[in-house]
Write a structure and sequence with these properties.
The protein is of the alpha/beta class and 143 residues long. The chain has a single domain, classed as Metalloproteases ("zincins"), catalytic domain (Collagenase (Catalytic Domain), 3-Layer(aba) Sandwich), CATH 3.40.390.30. Strands 1-2-4-3 form a four-stranded mixed sheet. Helix 1 links the parallel strand 1 and strand 2. It is globular, with a radius of gyration of 14 Å.
Length: 143
Amino acid sequence: MSAYMPVEIYSEHRAASMYRDDSKRIVEHVLAEERSEADVRIVFVDDDHIHSLNKYFLKHDTVTDVICFPLEEEDGIIEGEIYVCIDQAERQAREYNVTVRNEIGRLVIHGVLHLIGYDDATPEKKSAMTDKENTYLTQLQIS
């Protein structure tokens, strides 16, 4: 498998610049470990933006932490977008007693795993995704 994995980061949130380098490194690491190829765009957004996306596309009238949109797959290369809500990540970091950096890292990993085909629709699948998230956070030393 070639090393095709462009990562683009877009910032629509005031604090997003702090997480750009980590996010790019995370995507590249997870794709390499999972032996997947992808063209990934990460968009950091605020509560209002993620709420609008969640309501319009998923019919959930709530703020959420991460939304992933697989767009297409051609020749084994997945194209997709991951929207990460920094406001929600900040709240969750306080709730889980972790750093915002750690929580955003987890959300980026979660989005990449969804893009490449993982799902968390059952307790077993959710547990498997959480285990992978923990493994990658440890490997990348994101604390």
